[in-house]
């Protein structure tokens, strides 16, 4: 098929149309390019295709820095120059807001985190006839490719890949499949291993030696696909994150913002969404507070009621807030099953909502009908953002005051956003 690429879709593939007007999705292409593609299977109302050749390249096409680009399933637009890629991500946020019922909202080009800044990686591990394979999942596949380079994750994490490959050859608990999740904390790498077999006594000795040799303060372990909390297999020191200058212990696999630059951009946008002047002793409600990434900065502007469902997060946040003298009250609550009710919102100057990927449909339905004057919504999923903002568009009096795009998942199709909703004209 000879096709002209018209746009880039939500997954990062180029979109063209065949002679019947049906969409054709071609990866690794750019708007305006004329390409040759091999037709593939049906995909939604159209079909997928494999790129064969680029006949007319876009002036925005660049050489991908990573040798794994095209094989790795993580990066999809490494062949696109940074300015148009940032504009595409911001346009995705603007389109999501418009679909919700708030047209013509300006969203600045997404601020991108630099290469090799991501401090979290979840690596798949496989044992096969050729030995251990460890890396991200291959594009369109359940198994990983053998990672030798990466221009996204922090060099300290990348430096662990080869030693982990050697480690897993010696761990009897890995029969065929497992994973290695690394969080780069302020106290060093924190490793959570998951295997498909039980951890043997000799495995624990091997892990302890590995932790000491690699400067890893803690190694946790659990069975692959188990819902049980991981057990500590080896530890030699604290496993702490520092949030806004406050150190606090975090659990294995703790959710933290992916890059320092992304974290700073989200904090700045949230604080910018607060009212310029908040009289008296203002109360700010925060939902899905986690370990307090936003709680500590918010506490400089008012008293924060920080709601979070994970016991380990609230148990770490409250003592840390006390030590820092921060005006934070950490409250454990399953917000999916028990969203805040209108009466609980009374007297709050603003509410900050940072839900999981799926969004918070039950909660936003209540917020949209409440009397709270301002909601700052932090989203990592444009589809969920659009659905949730529609509840505010249907309710009287709400407007989108500002919106900011944040790109801390460089070269991927993912984009985050901070949207400030306020009442009034």
From TrEMBL:
Highest taxon above the source species: Bacteria
Keyword DNA damage: no
Entry keywords, A to Z: 4Fe-4S, Iron, Iron-sulfur, Metal-binding, Methyltransferase, S-adenosyl-L-methionine, Transferase
Residues annotated to bind S-adenosyl-L-methionine: 257, 308, 354
Molecular function via GO: methyltransferase activity
Entry-linked PROSITE patterns: SAM_MT_RNA_M5U, TRAM
InterPro entries: NA-bd_OB-fold, SAM-dependent_MTases_sf, TRAM_dom, U5_MeTrfase_fam
Domain TRAM: from-to ranges: 1-53
Enzyme class: transferase
EC code: 2.1.1.-
Keyword Iron-sulfur among record annotations: yes
Pfam families in UniProt: TRAM, tRNA_U5-meth_tr
Active-site residues, as the UniProt record annotates them: 380
Annotated GO biological process: methylation
Matching PANTHER family: 23S RRNA (URACIL(1939)-C(5))-METHYLTRANSFERASE RLMD (PTHR11061:SF49), RNA M5U METHYLTRANSFERASE (PTHR11061)
Similarity section: Belongs to the class I-like SAM-binding methyltransferase superfamily. RNA M5U methyltransferase family.
Name this protein carries in UniProt: Class I SAM-dependent RNA methyltransferase
Organism: Muricoccus vinaceus
Lineage start: Bacteria, Pseudomonadati, Pseudomonadota, Alphaproteobacteria, Acetobacterales
